[in-house]
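tokens incoming
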């Protein structure tokens, strides 16, 4: 039997050779770390459904931010749990709101860290939906004004990037206009462009106390079987002024990440969401998988699909494994 001249195993026989021909890289600069900010002082409370993740008061943020920066992580994304909730989610756009104070603290303490802010109302409304209600339906157009006010208040506090996650039609355009009119034309928009109505958000909703009090979000988040619709959503957001587009969740939608990356000449982010993270952690705890290897494999797969960077709760631990650079 004659072997072929090309033997793929030749380039797999040791680690230096494998590294030399590696097609996809993963480094701390490809990771963004989500942080949950709560009212109070001196608070660092572990989130049961997200092992190793914490509710942090504003005064505790700088320590985590400095560690992230020292490991080579370039950015964080902030999610706020307000001191009070109301039907219009007014603390989302309060100049002295929890996120606005968190932004100022981070920009004062770690000024060269990229601060991304979630723009949505679900954490701030007493009904848990992502916008203004009209009866039991989210009123798309009435919500746009509040989202724009939220983005402007975050930009005024010092946010580098605002990230609308609500999935209202037209919200990127409304936010871009408002930012420009208020003199924040240099603030970027990271659009949750293809955000699916997923079962993988459970731990986040517990951590952020943002589960809807009735119904679900199927009327505004995307239907999981659809990929062509995702391309339309991305195209609309780019036309309206998005600087970066996101696919969320990541692992169940690797095909969508790949299609978006191939179709559009724009930076693409992906969110390894709470359920994806928690599943790996649970399997590791039960001894069913090697958690570190499984997490790295997931993140490499997301990068291989085309994500320029990944929002992940594993950012700190993965950056430590990677050696901080």
């Amino acid at each position: 039997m004659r072997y072929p001249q090309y033997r793929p195993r030749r380039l797999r026989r040791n680690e230096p050779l494998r590294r030399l021909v590696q097609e996809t890289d993963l480094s701390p600069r490809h990771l963004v770390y989500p942080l949950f900010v709560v009212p109070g002082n001196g608070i660092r409370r572990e989130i049961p459904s997200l092992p190793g993740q914490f509710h942090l008061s504003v005064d505790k943020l700088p320590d985590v931010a400095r560690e992230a920066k020292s490991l080579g992580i370039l950015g964080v994304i902030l999610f706020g749990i307000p001191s009070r909730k109301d039907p219009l989610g007014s603390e989302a756009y309060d100049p002295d709101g929890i996120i606005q104070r968190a932004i100022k603290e981070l920009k004062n303490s770690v000024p060269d860290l990229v601060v991304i802010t979630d723009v949505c109302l679900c954490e701030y409304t007493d009904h848990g939906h992502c916008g203004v209600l009209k009866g039991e339906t989210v009123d798309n157009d009435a919500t746009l004004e509040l989202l724009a006010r939220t983005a402007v208040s975050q930009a005024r506090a010092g946010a580098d990037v605002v990230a609308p996650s609500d999935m209202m039609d037209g919200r990127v355009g409304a936010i871009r206009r408002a930012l420009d009119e208020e003199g924040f034309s240099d603030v970027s928009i990271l659009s949750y462009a293809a955000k699916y109505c997923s079962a993988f958000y459970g731990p986040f909703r517990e951590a952020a106390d943002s589960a809807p009090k009735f119904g679900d979000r199927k009327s505004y988040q995307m239907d999981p079987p659809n990929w062509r619709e995702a391309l339309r959503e991305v195209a609309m957001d780019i036309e309206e002024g998005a600087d970066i587009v996101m696919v969320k969740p990541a692992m169940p939608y690797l095909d969508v990440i790949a299609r978006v990356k191939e179709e559009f000449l724009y930076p693409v982010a992906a969110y390894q969401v709470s359920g994806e993270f928690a599943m790996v952690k649970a399997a590791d705890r039960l001894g069913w998988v090697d958690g570190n290897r499984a997490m790295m494999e997931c993140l490499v797969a997301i990068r291989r699909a085309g994500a320029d960077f990944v929002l992940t709760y594993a950012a700190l631990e993965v950056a430590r494994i990677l050696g901080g650079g």
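note: The chain has a mean pLDDT of 94.
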